[in-house]
Write a structure and sequence with these properties.
Layout (H helix, E strand, L loop, with lengths): L7 E5 L6 E6 H9 L8 E3 L6 E2 L10 E4 L5 E5 L1 H9 L8 E4 L5 E3 L8 H5 L13 H51 L1
Antiparallel strand pairs: 1-2, 1-3, 3-4, 5-6, 5-7, 7-8
């Protein structure tokens, strides 16, 4: 699917809700290739209906990075992978997954990786700021920590409620036993 490059687009950053645009689609694509768009960001042509960027095939966010055995980052673009090499967040030996084929390979084994491309200076694409893997993972960890704290608070409240309800049930059973004993 090719987008009309005259149509205006907006990019909304997930972490700050800041909106960039209006810009042409090729600018959104350039931002994605320069690691300035992450998988939780959203795009829109009308600022009413927003779509997560990995859902836009023309952005080619087709790659996952194996950060650890159990942790993946992405999806992201080929250009973003090269940018992450340039800034030292990953190496040619970092394992990546092609989302289209499911194939896992070292970054150095991909068709787009060359040492020259991986070490060439990054492009000067203005705003939004680059979001590295570490920064995104730290934000995700903070979000998960907050979610765990909230769930822990909810669990404590639920346990307190259960304890109160159990005491009420015991009291009612005792009263019922007293009433039955009084009738006999």
């Amino acid at each position: 699917m090719a987008f009309d490059n005259l149509e205006v687009w907006y990019l909304r950053k997930h972490d700050s809700a800041e909106v960039f645009g209006p810009v042409r689609f090729d600018r959104i694509k350039a931002w994605a290739m320069a690691a300035q768009v992450n998988s939780q960001d959203m795009v829109s042509t009308d600022r009413e209906v927003w779509t997560k960027v990995p859902m836009i095939p023309d952005l080619a966010m087709d790659w996952l990075i194996e950060v650890t055995d159990r942790l993946l980052y992405g999806p992201t673009t080929e250009g973003a992978l090269l940018e992450f090499v340039r800034v030292g967040e990953i190496t040619r030996d970092t394992m990546v997954v092609n989302c289209r084929t499911g194939e896992t390979m070292p970054l150095g084994g991909t068709s787009f990786f060359t040492e020259d491309a991986a070490h060439a200076p990054g492009g000067n694409v203005p705003t939004p700021p680059k979001a590295g893997i570490r920064a995104n993972l730290q934000k995700r960890i903070r979000d998960l920590d907050l979610a765990v704290e909230e769930k822990t608070r909810q669990l404590a409240l639920a346990q307190e409620t259960i304890t109160k309800l159990e005491a009420m049930v015991q009291d009612l059973q005792s009263r019922l036993a007293d009433i039955r004993a009084g009738r006999k």
